[in-house]
């Protein structure tokens, strides 16, 4: 580990946390009244502001840290609403997946399901609440209704969400691997080396509820592979350790190709994960994902945005955030009123969490009051 890499890693993580916190306080807080006055408009405004941070994250790890992204397979069409299913190799898969979403889809529609405790993180937790991320307690009786409320909200505000769901439930840590193997032995299933056995209950509920709300065009299967350096947690990024390459194999499954019954959906997911295990086995043998183009109409596969234009956007977004953070720093130094505003803004999120359980809960309830 070089000193240069450590400085770069600390710079990136520091800028992400600072931009997330300050951006939420200064940019998003003034838009919160729109949640009640006009939920649809409020959703679009907040999505645009969240998008600015997503693009910054991609810019920093691709440009500053030099992460190379390789995408193969059959992406979903742009503008479609989908349920994204991905293997959960590391704690940062959701973070790196933004590179695919930025190129082939709408990053402002990216929604992540994650554990409830992350909601409490100052700055980042506030932003994720505003983005409408789905915080789960991993208690099915409570999570089931919460998922339904979330899906209903995005349907009512006419959004086209790209929900990311990790059917494995957790990343491939040693404890999770042991639990997966124990489950496999009890069910008479093979032990997997590259994935965990998926949990089908949440997947079936997502598909059922999204279809009912008419916001599901397809299910996007994403297989993530790290052919060189693998980082397992956020702590390693502080040390400047990032994967040199990240490969995504994507395959879009239009909703009319999926079965209807719950049992058949469970079997469909189980078979999908078995195929994913085989695909990753081959990937780590040859070093890349292989695509059988005979299965696809090449002309029908969506094209990504131009890499030249994309890189221009990333450099532009870095410039925006640098100017923004400098401006806010100066304002904090010279203006007592601005200092008070920022303090009250931060307290607003704390109080809303204490009283309502978070901005996300307020978002979901807002459409119930307006309809």
TrEMBL record:
GO terms for cellular component: endoplasmic reticulum. Residues 82-204 form the Phospholipid/glycerol acyltransferase domain. GO terms for molecular function: acyltransferase activity. The chain crosses the membrane at residues 12-36, 48-71, 313-332, 338-354. Keywords: Acyltransferase, Membrane, Transferase, Transmembrane, Transmembrane helix. InterPro entries: Acyltransf_C, Plipid/glycerol_acylTrfase. The keyword Transmembrane applies. SMART domains: PlsC. CDD domains: LPLAT_LCLAT1-like (cd07990). GO terms for biological process: phosphatidylinositol acyl-chain remodeling. Belongs to the 1-acyl-sn-glycerol-3-phosphate acyltransferase family. This is Phospholipid/glycerol acyltransferase domain-containing protein. It comes from Candidula unifasciata.
